[in-house]
């Protein structure tokens, strides 16, 4: 597994191929756009989608929490795909998972979470819009401020990599001057191609590696 690191506002952040950001200085792990319950909503519409997707995503989270020994997990919005996905089975699956980890969980409400009521057994601290930690802000929607750096999601960024006749579409971290946008963590989510500015940095994910892209073309680790 190959990761990438960046120093931002005097702090080191590690970008993981599991589509997460690790902030070692605060023993914090960040992920965005999990969209729990999406498979169940599709099932209600008669579309056969496996409920095992949720178990797989929860297992990925737990492995990172345990392996990195983080004390705080920050969920940057769109935790649920919608209130209809809050089935009894989803509630119980997440509750059992929550009981298996000791990390604090901070949940930033996203647009898909507007009408979602979290079960008490999930034990998550919820913030409706923004949460500031020193020079950094946790948000769902991207924003640029001079005094702080925002970590967010919402856009599900992907980048096209490779020659024009044989391109790959890869999830990516999109770093702007005052904002870092995470790829969607959920396995059952789509992505939107980005148009980065010249001063932006794009870190794409392929297999178990994170590498730097320039205008969609790999330039190195």
Layout of SSEs?
Elements: E1 4-8, E2 11-16, E3 20-23, E4 28-31, H1 38-44, H2 52-68, E5 72-75, H3 88-99, E6 104-108, E7 125-127, E8 131-133, E9 136-138, E10 149-152, E11 157-161, E12 168-175, E13 179-181, E14 192-193, E15 201-206, E16 209-214, E17 217-220
Parallel strand pairs: 4-5, 5-6, 6-7, 9-10, 10-13, 11-14
Antiparallel strand pairs: 1-2, 2-3, 3-4, 8-9, 11-12, 12-13, 12-15, 15-16, 16-17
Helix pairs in contact: 2-3
Q: Could you please describe the fold and organization of this structure?
A:
It is a single chain. The chain has 221 residues and is an alpha/beta fold. The protein has a single domain, classed as Purple Acid Phosphatase, chain A, domain 2, CATH 3.60.21. It is built from three helices and 17 strands. The strands form two sheets. Strands 8, 9, 10, 11, 12, 13, 14, 15, 16 and 17 form a ten-stranded mixed β-sheet that branches. A seven-stranded mixed β-sheet has the order 1-2-3-4-5-6-7, with helices on one face. Strand 16 and strand 17 (217-220) form a beta hairpin. The chain is globular, with a radius of gyration of 17 Å. It starts with a strand and ends with a strand. The mean pLDDT is 91.
């Amino acid at each position: 597994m190959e990761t990438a690191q960046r120093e931002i506002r005097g702090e080191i952040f590690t970008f993981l191929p599991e589509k997460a950001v690790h902030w070692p200085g605060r023993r914090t792990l960040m992920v965005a756009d999990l969209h729990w319950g999406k498979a169940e909503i599709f099932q209600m519409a008669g579309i056969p989608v496996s409920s095992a997707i949720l178990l797989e995503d929860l297992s990925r989270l737990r492995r990172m929490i345990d392996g990195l020994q983080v004390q705080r997990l920050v969920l940057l919005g769109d935790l649920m795909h919608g209130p209809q996905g809050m089935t009894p089975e989803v509630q119980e699956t997440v509750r059992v998972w929550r009981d298996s980890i000791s990390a604090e969980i901070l949940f930033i409400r996203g647009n898909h979470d507007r009408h979602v009521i979290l079960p008490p057994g999930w034990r998550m601290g919820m913030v409706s819009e923004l949460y500031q930690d020193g020079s950094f802000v946790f948000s769902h929607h991207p924003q640029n401020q001079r005094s702080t750096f925002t970590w967010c999601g919402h856009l599900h960024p992907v980048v096209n990599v490779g020659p024009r006749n044989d391109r790959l579409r890869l999830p990516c971290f999109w770093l702007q001057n005052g904002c870092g946008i995470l790829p969607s963590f959920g396995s059952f989510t789509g992505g939107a191609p980005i148009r980065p500015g010249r001063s932006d940095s794009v870190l794409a994910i392929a297999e178990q590696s994170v590498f730097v892209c320039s205008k969609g073309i790999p330039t190195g680790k």
